[in-house]
Amino acid sequence: MIEHHLDIPTADGLMNSFVVYPDEGGPHPVVLFYMDAPGKREELHTMARRLAAVGYFVVLPNLYYRSSRDFWLTERTEAAMARMFGLMGTLNARTTTVDTQALLDFVDTQPHADASRLGAVGYCMSGPFVVWAAAAFPDRFKSIASIYGANMATDQPDSPHRAVAGLRCESYFACAEIDKWAPPAAVAQLQAGLVAAGMPHRVEWYPGVEHGFAFPLRAGIYNLPAAERHWARLFSLFGRTLRASAPA
Questions:
Q1: Which residues pair with 122 in a beta bridge?
Q2: For residues 7-27, b (16+ Cβ closer than 10 Å) or e, as one string?
Q3: Where are the domains of the chain?
Q4: In degrees, to the nearest 5, what angle opens at C-alpha 104 toward C-alphas 3 and 33?
Q5: In the chain, which residue ranges form alpha helices assigned H by DSSP?
Q6: In whole angstroms, what is the distance from residue 15 CA to residue 8 CA?
Q7: CA triplet 185, 186, 192: central angle to 5 degrees?
Q8: Is this structure's pTM higher than 0.70?
Q9: Domain 2-243, what fold?
Q10: Which tens digits make up the pLDDT trace of 165-179?
Q11: Are 22 and 236 in contact (CB under 8 A)?
């Protein structure tokens, strides 16, 4: 595979990003990979490679670039967690729109990317981001996936459970049974919003697992069967919505 570490210009600065895609064939459908709260790191690079290995042009940006080019949570001390939550607090629907516009501008210029076939996946804090992105650019996204997305139903006007009304693509939501960031009541609000929106969607519970179950290095939380199920769901979603729409 081909890998690049490069800066993508945005309206707010340079967003350092990891790009990976197959070294043969193409142009390839695009998957935008929105990181989780602990930051852009090698664990996520490896996950991006797994997507690229089955035929996608994958872009994984550092969403904290406005404050830090290299933050990632290496230990869960009180100070480190406070720093992470502070960085999380700088991101919202506006920054997601800015960053997504930059990502779209970038993939539109890449000869190895077919940006007419574009999807996204977000983990944890980025569950809302993929909803906001697809709602802000409804003509660009063919599918999105949120994996144990956090704060999917809040009292804010741009809460994801309200923003799903703007979706014009298929969506998938993987929900961990043990997850204080996405309790059943919040997921029920999200699902009600999806039903009202009338677009194809699936909300799936993963019984007996915790928030973060798909990350291989999340000691004591990673769950191999659940993680592999989430990969199967992603491959199915993107295969159906991105690869099946390849031009003749």
A1: 34, 146
A2: ebebeeeebbbbbbbbeeebb
A3: 2-243
A4: 50
A5: 42-53, 78-88, 93-108, 127-136, 160-163, 184-197, 224-238
A6: 5
A7: 90
A8: yes
A9: Rossmann fold (3.40.50)
A10: 999 999 999 999 999
A11: no
